[in-house]
Design goal:
- This protein is an alpha+beta fold and 146 residues long.
- The chain has one domain: Sufe protein. Chain: A (Alpha-Beta Complex).
- 41% of the residues lie in helices and 16% in strands.
- A three-stranded antiparallel sheet has the order 1-2-3.
- The protein is globular and about 45 Å long.
- The two termini are 20 Å apart.
- Bound molecules: FE2/S2 (inorganic) cluster.
Length: 146
């Protein structure tokens, strides 16, 4: 059911942890399953993502997608990190079962939320970045589904 890459990232997740004084932190949740993901970004003066860590209180697919997502954004510019969509993460993992696609959305949203936090802290605008749901509880009120 899961690809070898998914199992590998689930069993040996990369970049688990926190970054102290991170340039940007994003926390998102899925109201339906209750899973939560937080991403920390360390971004240097020239806008390159030097480090990225995550914490996920969630299912195996959420762990694997956040692990892969952190690997994909490391070393990228802020603009390039925006291209790390859930589709890109899923492709890098050789796919996910259809019922688990929403888990990969959490990773994309967490990265975007962390980038938004970074942009806000630095008073910059990242082209193409939309304001994320600030509060992870907002989704519950919206009744939004993935
Ligand atoms: Fe909730 Fe996977 S089941 S993120």
């Amino acid at each position: 059911m899961y690809s070898e890459k998914v199992m590998d990232h689930f069993n040996n997740p990369r970049n688990v942890g926190e970054i102290e004084n991170a340039s940007g932190v994003g926390t998102v949740g899925n109201a339906k399953c209750g899973d939560i993901m937080r991403i920390y970004l360390d971004i240097d003066q020239s806008g390159i993502i030097k480090d990225c860590k995550f914490k996920t209180f969630g299912c195996g697919a959420a762990v694997a997608t956040s692990s892969m997502a952190t690997e994909l954004v490391k070393g990228k510019t802020v603009q390039q990190a925006l291209e790390v969509t859930n589709k890109a993460v899923m492709e890098a993992l050789d796919g996910l079962p259809p019922v688990k696609v929403h888990c990969s959305l959490l990773a994309e949203e967490a990265i975007h939320a962390a980038l938004w936090d970074y942009a806000e802290k630095n008073g910059i605008v990242i082209e193409g970045l939309k304001k994320p749901k600030k509060d992870i509880h907002e989704g519950e009120e919206d009744g939004e589904e993935y």
